[in-house]
Amino acid sequence: MAGNSFGEAFRVTTFGESHGPAIGAIVDGVPPRVALSEADIQPFLDRRKPGQSRFTTQRREADQVRILSGVFEGMTTGAPIGLLIENEDPRSKDYGAIKDLFRPGHADYTYWRKYGIRDYRGGGRSSARETAMRVAAGAIARKVVASVSIRAALVQVGTNAIERARWDWEETERNPFWCPDAATVPHWVAFLDEVRRAGSSAGGIVEVVACGVPAGLGEPVFDRLDADLAKALMSIPAVKGVEIGAGFAAAAMPGSDHNDAMRMADGAVTFLSNNAGGVLGGISTGQDIVCRIAIKPTSSLAKPQQTVSVAGEDAEIVTKGRHDPCVAIRAVPVAEAMVALVLADHWLRQRGQCATAVREDRGFNK
Amino acid sequence: MAGNSFGEAFRVTTFGESHGPAIGAIVDGVPPRVALSEADIQPFLDRRKPGQSRFTTQRREADQVRILSGVFEGMTTGAPIGLLIENEDPRSKDYGAIKDLFRPGHADYTYWRKYGIRDYRGGGRSSARETAMRVAAGAIARKVVASVSIRAALVQVGTNAIERARWDWEETERNPFWCPDAATVPHWVAFLDEVRRAGSSAGGIVEVVACGVPAGLGEPVFDRLDADLAKALMSIPAVKGVEIGAGFAAAAMPGSDHNDAMRMADGAVTFLSNNAGGVLGGISTGQDIVCRIAIKPTSSLAKPQQTVSVAGEDAEIVTKGRHDPCVAIRAVPVAEAMVALVLADHWLRQRGQCATAVREDRGFNK
Amino acid sequence: MAGNSFGEAFRVTTFGESHGPAIGAIVDGVPPRVALSEADIQPFLDRRKPGQSRFTTQRREADQVRILSGVFEGMTTGAPIGLLIENEDPRSKDYGAIKDLFRPGHADYTYWRKYGIRDYRGGGRSSARETAMRVAAGAIARKVVASVSIRAALVQVGTNAIERARWDWEETERNPFWCPDAATVPHWVAFLDEVRRAGSSAGGIVEVVACGVPAGLGEPVFDRLDADLAKALMSIPAVKGVEIGAGFAAAAMPGSDHNDAMRMADGAVTFLSNNAGGVLGGISTGQDIVCRIAIKPTSSLAKPQQTVSVAGEDAEIVTKGRHDPCVAIRAVPVAEAMVALVLADHWLRQRGQCATAVREDRGFNK
Amino acid sequence: MAGNSFGEAFRVTTFGESHGPAIGAIVDGVPPRVALSEADIQPFLDRRKPGQSRFTTQRREADQVRILSGVFEGMTTGAPIGLLIENEDPRSKDYGAIKDLFRPGHADYTYWRKYGIRDYRGGGRSSARETAMRVAAGAIARKVVASVSIRAALVQVGTNAIERARWDWEETERNPFWCPDAATVPHWVAFLDEVRRAGSSAGGIVEVVACGVPAGLGEPVFDRLDADLAKALMSIPAVKGVEIGAGFAAAAMPGSDHNDAMRMADGAVTFLSNNAGGVLGGISTGQDIVCRIAIKPTSSLAKPQQTVSVAGEDAEIVTKGRHDPCVAIRAVPVAEAMVALVLADHWLRQRGQCATAVREDRGFNK
């Protein structure tokens, strides 16, 4: 009801503000006897961690996650998993200056209208800080759908798109942008340096691909797999659009080009194209699931902007805090995590929470 | 869990197959003492009804809705509202020919993989027939958010987009496409006639605008208003993309252009632009909510397509059934309805289900 | 949210008022390929049907149920199952006399306080008429947990309890009270005739037993199997108490007597007693699940009672409508149904909705 | 789905095992601008805390709660409230001896059957340790329904019931049993000392009373206020029965005695008795809500019991751990907390989550 939970069978509930003592989550519905430790989660948090290049915020956070429950002797027990990360570098003083001003493009004004109270410390609950817990939960979700590989890449920054013909997944690990096209990297470097000098910011487009999703995942009508993916991805801060498969381009295609023809090959159904993006009628086809999201440019700018104050007066605002010139970069691991959450949830909705345990033979009294 | 319900405080659950005896819905959470009758719902169903022009399926359905509960002496009672529409024109014979073939671009294959059973009668549950109940429930949702006006228009068919400068809401009621630009209509007529002759189909883009939404609607983190809108709209059959405000274009904008500047006017906060599309941080700003969805071309084609059979053999398929050459047309009233469902749900999540009743003074024992 | 749904994985949503045109339900989450037809449901509705003896209301209802969706060629498809029963014998005139009076012991006053509106026709939504849909849904739930047998009996009427030593399940089908003790039946006949003559009413105690429930069903902490059973049974109209196993008597037992000792027998765990009633820590043990519920005496009385009017004035009320002198009798099939709903829900939460379908081999493309 | 959450509008999710590093909870849906600090929660945790008399377990836990989010400058913000208590005194060694044995009357066997894994450390998730988080969340719930007073008392220990005529709420704070009848206390002292000497244990009955609940709270049909109370109370470890108002005694009462007559007094509706226990048709009447629960005797006994091992062999077990001879004592504050959770949830379902904030005037742009 209050919006801080995601999923039904694999259910994540998070808490925590940008400048509070800690952020945390409870992951409920994880099947028993899955090998799990902090070492399975930390690498994904490190991918999202700020301060890794001059293109992301310089805020310093170790983001060390602790598992507080649900794991015994290295295996999940089926009990809820409590996760905790202490905040290390709040720097509230950064925000005192804009204490009474609404930052344009931020949730400051809308939260204040909804709740009638203002936590001015870096946006409080509305800060992207909460996405760390999405990434931690996503790492656990990956263990539930272990046969699925979920990867994302940044395919456009500002007006500069990659050349898809040069796509190389390994390249995404070699540059600070998760860019799959080595030749595009220097252009983004130059572009973002210019953006920062201009006191402005840039947006981008992220593509997520899930390989190995079995056919038959998803629900009819409302809880379609693609509908839940759309919700999960649109819930990421700064996302303004979501598309699957051919996406918006599908509107301009004739049906004869868009339909993915089907053929048998080695006794298996195959598709001759994937304009569907791996989902038909809301249920997975067995092909790769391919989604793209549009991320708006960072709202916090070094250059002055027109705004109003809590007192209802016109004002100018300059945000001095540490911010990402292009939040799309750090959205990459978050987008992967949200897709993992959706797949784990639909997996368990279909397979059942404890299926692995209840089906297994424990030597007597079956 | 099984995907046939939408919403939490304003909750709609639907049932019914394309060729079963009837389709229906239960709308739970409607506040008491709202004036309601079939006459409030039927006009919206008539907008969606097939067979209204040569550009939509010729299937004949009166789509007469009956209210079976929840209304007493013309007013809602707070009890769940049961809705029923009898199916009149199933024509199952149309489908016998493709009984054992999977229609490319349809849910035939994925439903069969998920459920292990095949209801070949026009797609059964996966048919767009179920959207009639979304429209009926949406009409009730509009009564809950009576101060909000929700309208949609078709802004692109195939590659032909409207001229936004010529946008006229009244024009949408004068042509069979819900097109807001009179000058574009003849081009679409010619284009779709050509598409039909070619035995192909076309996609399109629908824009939905909600005016009068108060600031402060929506939840943080996961159940953001825009996230729920994305889910609601992506759940409409054939939708492949959803965007809000500037949408995908936001990725290419500098932050200084994208942020909507704020000023006071007559003691009220105003925004100098609406790139946000009426939502910041997942919560409404008080501006218009503006969404666009991409609809793929109709999957059923008169021209032969490659497919496979239930028995796992290659085959060719030609769908003779009555189909819309461009399903985007009939998606217009459905998109309006889904936005209404989301707004009514968040409205009640915030205001409370029975707020109107419990707050009112009934003369004693307050 | 609005209270008309039950269950998560096996989810039932009902609608309908005592004197509206029809009552209905949507059962969502039923696994595919379960053989189902009206003939599987009707016998259970007939057990609950009024007018079967002089000890139940004389209202005449055929209670013929129609399945409107979710079944194709005699098998469930995994789509939601729509159920409908037309009301035949409303007789609203019976209620005109008490149009403005609150019936003591009824929901008239509380509904009016909650909703601020009054549907005086036999209690509207609060009438026990809605329990017909619980019984219909319960019949479908039984098919989901086909290996479980769920039976109930009336074990006390007013102050007259049965002799447990004479318990005979077959006897419950031979008398109008579902009484398992033939020797007690004549006492109840005499007692209830006296009660009716006195213009009063009587309560009773119902016991429900579920045999064949596998060990391991239920969830920890909040959604315990016994907690959900308590909710399900307390939600039946007129129920004032629920107990499981030893129930309230457990409070007076020493732990050494109450604990059910465990021994191995033929390689299986067995218990030497069942004070737990088949549930430990909220999860099933594999023993019979045994619950008892206390039903208050019928609120509608032929003798005058003190009440107040909608206008806030003292008044006297005599209810002339057709009522059961002892609603506990007709609560028997309803109690069975509610236990079936809980077991089917926990079964699917554990096993997964589509487990049967997704696990099965369909010849290719596994 | 996985059972570790309670409530819809006021939603509590807990985690933590008896011998893990910590236990915690997330309370979501708390309205904004409610004054809250650890000092509002700690006193209720102290009431539940073990080791306060020789009649409760000697395990030493400070149970110091930390609020990690959702509160800013002493007021709730509407963001989820993260709660954490570090475990101080696990003493896992106590449990090594029974590592491979199922304790009769415990969840050891059922959890092992459900999850296929065994956390033998004091029952892990099934330990009553988790109830500390129910009490902490209940303290927050009390702030949401500030006008309601929720109190509980122990009214029976073993076979010794109090004398209701001597009921004195203040006395409950003066003895270690929360006993409202001073004259009964010495009998319980003698009885429990004898029970402990015998290596046995005792059960009891707890009564909870909520005063000041407004009329009109609760939902129809399934989510009745009494149904949710029954679930909440039955979910407390060791509870075997729940009743409301006259409870099981209602079965033996004639309707003319059981119905609570209604009269006007000072322009308000009043009832001449409260056999309903404050709920009619699942909705509150405005009278006190009165519930009773039966708690079974502690399962862990000093005297030997028959059991089986994980390996499927007969065995004898003697539990040496620190246990309450009568868990009913510590169930008193837990029962109060569960009633508070139910009332806060139904309060917000009706009034709306943010009602307080959205209704208030913030000077402009209403």
Automatic annotation (TrEMBL), chains A, B, C, D:
Biological process per Gene Ontology, one example term: chorismate biosynthetic process
MF annotations from Gene Ontology: chorismate synthase activity; FMN binding
Reactions this protein catalyses: 5-O-(1-carboxyvinyl)-3-phosphoshikimate = chorismate + phosphate
EC number: 4.2.3.5
Cofactor detail note: Reduced FMN (FMNH(2)).
One GO term describing the cellular component: cytosol
UniProt pathway annotation: Metabolic intermediate biosynthesis; chorismate biosynthesis; chorismate from D-erythrose 4-phosphate and phosphoenolpyruvate: step 7/7
InterPro entries recorded: Chorismate_synth (IPR000453), Chorismate_synth_AroC_sf (IPR035904), Chorismate_synthase_CS (IPR020541)
Keyword entries, A-Z: Amino-acid biosynthesis, Aromatic amino acid biosynthesis, FAD, Flavoprotein, FMN, Lyase, NADP
Cofactors named for this entry: FMNH2
Binding site for FMN: R125, S126, S127, G281, K296, P297, T298, S299, S300, R322
CDD domains: Chorismate_synthase
Alphabetized Gene3D superfamilies for the sequence: Chorismate synthase AroC
Top-level taxon of origin: Bacteria
Binding site for NADP(+): R48, R54
Family to which the UniProt record says this protein belongs: Belongs to the chorismate synthase family.
Subunit structure: Homotetramer.
Alphabetized HAMAP family for the sequence: Chorismate_synth
Function of the molecule: This reaction introduces a second double bond into the aromatic ring system.
The protein's name in its UniProt record: Chorismate synthase
Organism: Candidatus Defluviicoccus seviourii
